[in-house]
RNA sequence: GGGGUCGUAGUUAAGAUGGUUAUAACGCCGGCCUGUCACGCCGGAGGCCGUGGGUUCGAGUCCCAUCGACCCCGCCA
């Protein structure tokens, strides 16, 4: 056989290659047999090229081409020629040319694939994941992973050029309390002992600052044994960053620079930096969530002061019980039918809301189930507060602050999707900061860190640690893109005494703190620079940059919602010998 | 742990109120076809209706359980 070495990618051939003899290797995307001439679309990662088998030109190859089926792997030698006039295919990058085959070698035959993968045929995800290696042949998926690779490469380039050092941290490490459930790995040489897979390299990057690396980054796998969602996998990737001798602004600036660099180099999109900043309190007040999508307005307005003494009991009773009444104005209320409005009540019920009131604004009042319970002045005050005009719809929710914010904050996103208020190709970033340091856990009956226990409190709030921990603000910040938290970080505690104070507030005794984090507390005593950092959710960033809805579409071999792999069938049982070697017994 | 949607040829789906042999499209196989590109035309094969139980003279269809996929709540410092 004389066919030897590939000379070109199929998808890269253009009119400029006409006349050249080329050797292509790739998969059969589709075969069109006309009895005489046979056309095959040959596919590789760069695209398609039409190759032609003509009995008059090369009878041998033409005979061989009869046996060819979908997904066979071929090597062909041939000459690039311009297509006859009128035969060009404008849908194909290489549509102006074709390759007249002079020599064919079938490198590999293929079983008929379980699903057609050469067009956007809809296939269930179960089948796709079962045969992921075939699914990954589809250009749409390849495109995502190729962009992911580029984003990773540009991330490394950016941090390298800005004086950051990539350091790898252990995957087998120590289980720590607080935070997500750990994945555990038994130690054979230490029976009864376990490593944990890292939820993030948090402590290691702080130790690296103590070691004097000054600027660290890493693109790193993290593991959290929690339930999955459309944007959550048990193993995921972070862009992890830490810097010494800095404050919040330094993190903001370097991170804005990264994101702008990535969008410019990978999407050819110019971002407006610096990004706007929003306090946690303002975000909750205006948007009901700490990760607001600010591509659209739909702001929440507090009406509690207006309806506190209303004859409408749901309002007055909630207000006197310490709850709030908030409302949202939908500009184009006419697009919502009565049925739609009732549907919104169902929607908010998943967030614990017991009901949702609505009002259509007319010139002479409202069309609303609650209209007759409100005084004309209450209606007028609400209209003024909401800046309501004819044709608007106002929705109201009365409940505890957390339910109102949760329900309306999610309803806000829901409505934006339903009414197409958010442009998919618009990228609206915002920083959210001044988070509370702690939140009270009803389940554990104690304060827990909202970010993590190494987050520095705002200095002037330190006295509150002993009197009112819930009011202590953290030097923490999240980066939010189009309503998704794509990153978060903080300025860390660099003093051992304050770190101990925080542990105590969390209900962690000195002895326990020593046992769990002794190495960090000790390290803090050996000269620790002020430091802080951030971690960006790499998969989520790639999701938004590729425009896909599922994190599984940017991960080559993702897990199902039950955290299994349909391809490898992991997790699976292990032999009794393996268990014995690890001193493990299944309970 | 909880709520919801779904499961029928290889794939995607249709199968009112239970009733002969379970449909269609694409794919697959065979034949014809020398300019197609979602090629076309003719013919054909292909099914434990996710699984197990129940109701019934009779179940793809009704009931119960169970398995699996997806979305959501809780959870995710």
Describe the protein's architecture and organization.
The structure is a single chain. The protein is 30% helix and 24% strand. It has helices at 59-65, 125-130, 132-135, 139-161, 202-210, 248-267, 280-287, 304-307, 313-320, 338-349, 376-386, 401-418, 464-467, 496-505, 510-524, 538-546, 576-581, and strands at residues 21-33, 38-44, 47-53, 73-82, 97-108, 165-166, 184-186, 194-196, 215-223, 235-244, 277-279, 300-302, 324-330, 357-362, 365-367, 393-399, 429-433, 438-441, 446-449, 476-481, 484-491, 531-537. A hairpin with a 2-residue loop joins strand 2 (38-44) and strand 3 (47-53). By secondary structure, it is α+β, with helices and mostly antiparallel strands. It is globular and about 90 Å long. It binds one RNA strand of 77 nucleotides through strand 1, strand 2, strand 3 and helix 2.
In short:
By secondary structure, this protein is of the alpha+beta class. 30% of the residues lie in helices and 24% in strands.
Number of helices: 17
Mean pLDDT: 94
Rg, Cα atoms, Å: 30 Å
The strand count comes to 22
**Strand sequence of the main sheet, in spatial order?**
6-9-10-22-21-20-17-11
Quote the distance from N terminus to C terminus.
Answer: 61 Å
Tell me the strand percentage band: 15-25%
Unreliable segments of 5+ consecutive residues: none
Largest beta sheet, briefly? Answer: 8 strands, mixed
Helical content (DSSP H or I, runs of 4+): 25-40%
